[in-house]
Specification:
Elements lengths: L16 H12 L24 H10 L2 H5 L18 H18 L4 H10 L8 H11 L5 H16 L6 H8 L19 H24 L10 H7 L3 H15 L13 H23 L2 H19 L16 H11 L2 H12 L7
């Protein structure tokens, strides 16, 4: 470009929206927070001009078919009649919003948190953990966190996968807690503080909303909850969530290596007590109910039916995968919603009237 005096002058290109956002991350986020600039994917691809890498991951998850199916998958109560019981989708949204609140307060990367939170249960089976247990019996080694990673890596987009960034994939894989308690990771800890935020937020969400749903279902009343739990965490749903979130924010470290996402001993003990109470009074009794056993029978029967003859699988599960037949059958069964599993079982196994 020529200036007024006729001399040539170089013109600096304006930074893209993505570059502005990346610079904002560099300046604003806590020292140990994950940055999106330069983050890697399993397969390299051009950067977006408008979105950071983690924002693109979040969008890919929300547009995925497996995400939409979560609305018809059980959280705790199988095929509930009421409109206000949690499903796997509403659980996912509650986890993600709790995690974003914690992440914002700690100046962590909310976009990474959101992408992990929205994707963490994509591999969950129909009929909740009861369905997962049944499928693991039929296909040993099945775990929903590993299946969630398989969904985003291999199964989505007709076998091409979503090509999510490595920090998102890591957070999905390491979101589960062990039976030992809220602070114990079932499959190792996440490699980012954002992933750890999602892991603890998953626990915060379900110990509170499962209690809420159990009371709604008439399985419990608030009088059944041990008084010491309510004295520590609060008597109302919102108060308990707030107490847990505020404690994590106060106890966590995001500036000095290695960092941590943690509860105080008192709050952790109360949270673990509430979780144990739910196992004793809600999860274990529900798993022993006839309705739950019927649901588990459906999962086992469908798996056995398709393993017996894998050619029965839908076309989309045949050509796109080199996996062995049992693996492809497990993929298909795990992908089902509750109602699809029931309808397919009826089509295959329940006699129909016919005219002569």
């Amino acid at each position: 470009m020529m200036g007024e005096n006729g001399a040539g002058a170089s013109v600096m290109a304006s930074p893209s929206v993505r570059e502005v956002l990346e610079e904002r991350e560099r300046v604003w986020l806590a020292p140990l927070a994950a940055r999106s600039h330069g983050v890697l994917r399993p397969e390299a691809e051009p950067e977006s001009e408008l979105r950071t890498a983690f924002q693109r991951d979040r969008d890919r998850v929300t547009h995925a078919k497996s995400f939409r199916r979560l609305m018809h998958k059980t959280q705790v109560f199988i095929a509930p009649a009421g409109d206000h019981y949690r499903t796997r989708l509403t659980h996912t949204l509650e986890v993600t919003q709790i995690a974003r609140t914690i992440g914002r307060a700690l100046r962590l990367n909310e976009d990474l948190i959101e992408a992990i939170g929205l994707a963490h249960d994509l591999g969950h089976t129909p009929f909740g953990h009861a369905g997962e247990t049944a499928l693991a019996e039929a296909f040993p080694g099945f775990r929903h966190n590993e299946q969630s990673l398989r969904v985003v890596d291999t199964l989505e987009r007709d076998g091409r996968g979503l090509n999510l960034t490595h920090p998102v994939r890591d957070g999905i894989l390491h979101h589960s807690k062990s039976r030992a308690g809220m602070a114990h990771a079932a499959s190792g800890f996440a490699g980012t503080l954002e992933g750890e935020v999602v892991r603890v937020s998953d626990g915060i969400a379900y110990i509170n909303h499962d209690l809420d749903d159990a009371i709604r279902a008439g399985l419990l009343t608030m009088d059944d909850v041990p008084a010491e739990i309510l004295q520590t965490l609060g008597a109302r749903h919102a108060a308990r969530v707030n107490a847990l979130v505020a404690d994590v924010v106060a106890q966590s470290e995001t500036s000095t290596s290695p960092g941590r996402i943690a509860f105080s001993p008192e709050i952790l003990a109360a949270a673990d007590s509430l979780r144990e109470f739910l196992f004793q009074r809600v999860y274990t009794p529900l798993n022993e109910e006839a309705n739950t056993r019927r649901a588990q029978h459906i999962v086992r029967a469908l798996y056995a039916h398709f393993v017996e003859d894998p050619a029965r699988l839908p076309a989309e599960y045949l050509p796109r995968s080199t996996a062995e037949a049992p693996r492809r059958v497990a993929d298909f069964v795990a992908s089902m919603t509750d109602r699809y599993a029931i309808e397919l079982y009826e089509q295959i196994f329940v006699p129909r009237h016919w005219s002569v």
